[in-house]
Amino acid sequence: MSYDYNSSRKKLILPEYGRNIQKMVNHIKTIEDRDERNKAAKTVIGVMGNLNPHLRDVGDFKHKLWDHLAIISDFDLDIDSPYELPSRESLISKPEKVPYHQHKIKKKHYGRSIVLMIDKAVELEPGEEKEDLVKMIAYHMKKSYLTWNREAVSDEEIFGDMKTLSGGKLIANPELKLPETKDILAKNRPIQKKKQGGGKKYKQHS
Question: Total structural domains in the chain?
């Protein structure tokens, strides 16, 4: 007497559909009459849809089912599909390399976001909105500087860096006062939890 153990069976191509679907697809490939193959394929598609109702929430789920049918058949199913079936090469081909925009930043510790904010501030007309943005940029520049360098930095140096990054087009008000270095470092420093059980213990008297 022989037993059909899962460990001895051929590995399923798409396990989520189960072994019965795999057997049905394998059977379709043995049908000689093309019309009968097409009818059988449509029947299997219906069963596959019932087994995976979550696919109904996927855009064009019918197309997805026919793609899965092709995959389960190992791309060896000669049928008239209502959609262009995928090829083996289309699934194993490497994705196109996503271009990574590398912008040269004169002072990298400030980051690309600061540069974009400075560019935006340069475009603004003089006024309260521009002054508020400049103040916010200067604060974040000082915060970024201290995050990387952990050394004291004067407001004048921050304003100088802002002028450099803007190509001399953005000049902060010299009377602008930024938070002290120690205050910024205190905000950056994670809050230490108090040690539990550190308090005094008192004996209860009966």
Answer: 2
Q: What length is written for the chain?
A: 206
Does some domain include residue 200?
no
Per-residue pLDDT of 97-133, as tens digits, reads: 555 445 555 677 777 888 888 888 899 888 888 898 9
Q: Note whether 17 and 50 are within 8 A (CB).
A: no
| pTM value > 0.70 | no
Nearest to 80 by CA among 127, 124, 45, 117: 45
- Shared domain for 120 and 154, answered yes or no, is yes
What pLDDT is stored for residue 191 in this prediction? 42
Residue 188's contacts (CB-CB under 8 Å, 6 or more residues apart) are 143, 146, 147
Q: What would the two tokens of residue 113 be? A: 């976001």
Tell me if 144 sits within 8 A of 188, measured CB to CB: no
Q: How far apart are the C-alpha atoms of 135 and 178, rounded to whole Å?
A: 8
Number of C-beta neighbours around residue 22 at 10 A: 19
Assigned domain for 35 exists = yes
Domain coverage including residue 170: 108-188
